[in-house]
Design a protein that fits this description.
Layout lengths: L33 E5 L4 E4 L1 H6 L1 H7 E6 L2 H5 L2
Antiparallel strand pairs: 1-2, 1-3
Amino acid sequence: MIQMEEVVMSTTMIEHQALTTADRCDRCGAQAYVRITLRNGGELLFCAHHARAHEDKLKQVALHIQDDTTKVSSHV
């Protein structure tokens, strides 16, 4: 008899809150426009400059990337 293994898939819901002026870049302290949700549940915040500078590496470790950089030019 072949034993069948039940596979249960779980979906993690990520609640995305809007970034505000109180959210600061973890690298330089400027206003954050990018939120990186890590696979381990952690979170990183970056200004547009530092998000672009580290984009390739961030894509490798991110579960989700919330990119609000379009708001940068709309405030100018």
